Amino acid sequence: MNFATSDIGWIVGHTNIVYGPTLRGSASVFFEGKPITPNPGIIWEKVQEYGVTMLFMAPTGVRVIKKEDYEGDWAKKYDTSSLNGFCTAGERCDPDTVSWLNRTLPSAMINDTWWQTETSWPICGNLLNVAKNGPIFPTLPGSVTKPMAGYDLKIFNEQN
What we know:
Strand order of the largest sheet: 2-1-3-4-5
Number of strands: 7
Radius of gyration: 15 Å
Helix content: 25-40%
CATH topology: Rossmann fold
CATH class: Alpha Beta
CATH architecture: 3-Layer(aba) Sandwich
Number of domains: 1
Distance between the termini: 45 Å
Shape: globular
Strand content: 5-15%
Structural class: alpha/beta
């Protein structure tokens, strides 16, 4: 069961709410509203209610929940053990937020990806569930791992 909290107008929203689940023959749950309304546990409540296995959320949404529930007390009230993957996209997820996700959702592999509506596909990320239900590359806090197929990325600084 996929669950995406992104705006359906963004590429990551309709890809993770409509196209991806449809192509996989999977059901999809999506949530409209603030991820802390009526309380900071609403997302975890939906994970439990629907047996969500893959959750997608923009890092900004995660930070909103983290700000209201830094200790993860709301997540502890619900059974989130069905969750085996948590993908973030949009901007890079900061290391503290990735660490918070790892502490709060110990059963979920965290996949920080980078893509934008203009690219229509992830630019960088970790392919989950491709290599024996695990990540291909180690996912480090603050890193979106490797470029996706079709991208030739370069890192530049003032010297080159």
